[in-house]
Amino acid sequence: MELQIIFQLFLATVLGGLVGLEREIKKREAGLQTYSLVCLGSCIFSIFAFSFQSFTPLQIDLLRVIQAVAIGIGFIGAGTIFKSERGVEGLTTAAGLWVVAGIGIAIGAKFYILALLSTFFALIILAGLGLLEERFFPRK
Predict the structure, then answer these.
(1) How many of the other CB atoms lie within 10 Å of CB of 40?
(2) Domains in the chain, number
(3) Highest-pLDDT range among 8-17, 19-28, 80-89
(4) pTM of the prediction?
(5) Which residues are paired to 88 by β-bridges?
(6) Residue ranges making up the domain that contains 25
(7) Which of 61, 77, 101, 106 has the smallest count of CB within 10 Å of its CB?
(8) What's the start-to-end Cα distance of the chain, in Å?
């Protein structure tokens, strides 16, 4: 049981860190640490909710735990969005944090393939589509 939890926490830290590393390379404010912490935190809440449900007769509404994580990340994400002279900034950061929270929940629920594929797709979107945007839709 403990090895399973250690693996889940490690995987959440690594996968969140991979997405954060991409943001770090692009010199964004939220990077390696932020993304790792968000993924790890959402994994912790998920592990707790799923484990608590199997060890006690009390009913835990797993959807409420997931909803609480999503709402919490909404507040963090809202703090990353601001309007500047160049327009609205931070939307991609907020969306990325939202995605890594989902990855952390997936890991906590033991959906490892979902977490790995989601991380892969997030990296494609952030790195690959970012390059396409720069090439075909340059900012003024």
Answers:
(1) 23
(2) 1
(3) 8-17
(4) 0.88
(5) 83
(6) 2-136
(7) 61
(8) 54
